[in-house]
């Protein structure tokens, strides 16, 4: 009896229009597995969209926006070089686009090495150059300029730096060269020289510079031209403003040759006869040869110490 009552609590039998339907007293459970799968798919799609948007934004910022376009160029160390001319060269070099899409002035695509080489090729006065990029839009350039110390003329004329290297072709008669007061050495052998060649020894250049300075400052003899039969000979010939020539040899040493010259000029050749000279030759050890323009032979002084006693001695 009690069993039938409990069983009736579990289900109820309803009779409707001659049919019987069993209604369970339990509710159907929700589908948790389907909901979880739907949420997972939605999260994955959202993640993909987020990643795509992120990388699209990065690509746009790096390659298509103007954020990384170079807008500031700083140049330091110039003395004779025009920094504005250098900036103009840089701007021209990085103008335009790659594949008609990406700006060439994007700092990511600028090669500091290539930019430095291009500037050094165009501006001969550049000896050393350092190019650095500073994100997002700056370039810093440090320059060390060559210091011209000589003009060498062979087949052509070139400026020579302190290390003896040719670095710029020049006209020795130009106003700029004349105003610079650089020594102009002419190689009478007309040996062909080219750009960026090491052609003169620094010691050789110093000898020529010191010799010219001593003639002009200590003896009051102006120098109009400097020649050598061959650079390797060490033979230097300085033509004075009076039209006569003095022969020097680097191997004898400047001080010794200067002392010999002073002795000859003070003891044997009066100053009023200097313009009558053809040459004075100081290239022989302890002997000085000189010749006047109207003389048939040269004169010899055996040494700087004995110049007075040997005045007027003839030599074949």
* CATH third-level topology of the largest domain: Rossmann fold
Terminal Cα span:
166 Å
Shape: rod-shaped
The structural class is: alpha+beta
- Please outline the major beta sheet: 11 strands, mixed
Low-confidence stretches: 5-18, 302-316
Radius of gyration: 46 Å
The number of helical runs is 7
Order of helices and strands: HEEHEHEEHEEEEEHEHEEEHEEEE
CATH architecture annotation of the largest domain = 3-Layer(aba) Sandwich
CATH class of the largest domain: Alpha Beta
- What's the helical proportion of residues? 25-40%
CATH level 4 superfamily of the largest domain:
Cell division protein FtsQ/DivIB
Which features characterize this protein?
316 residues; alpha+beta; Ubiquitin-like (UB roll); Rossmann fold; 3 domains; 11-stranded mixed β-sheet; 3-stranded mixed β-sheet; 7 helices; 18 strands; rod-shaped
Describe the structure.
The protein is α+β, with helices and mostly antiparallel strands. The protein folds into three domains: 37-66, no CATH class; 72-145, membrane protein fhac (Ubiquitin-like (UB roll)), CATH 3.10.20.310; 150-314, Cell division protein FtsQ/DivIB (Rossmann fold, 3-Layer(aba) Sandwich). It has seven helices and 18 strands. The strands form four sheets. An eleven-stranded mixed sheet has the order 10-9-8-11-12-13-14-15-16-17-18, with helices on one face. The chain has a three-stranded mixed sheet with strand order 3-7-6. It has a two-stranded antiparallel sheet with strand order 1-2. The longest helix is centred in the N-terminal third of the chain and has 33 residues, at 32-64. The chain is rod-shaped and about 130 Å long. Mean pLDDT is 84; it is low at 5-18 and 302-316.
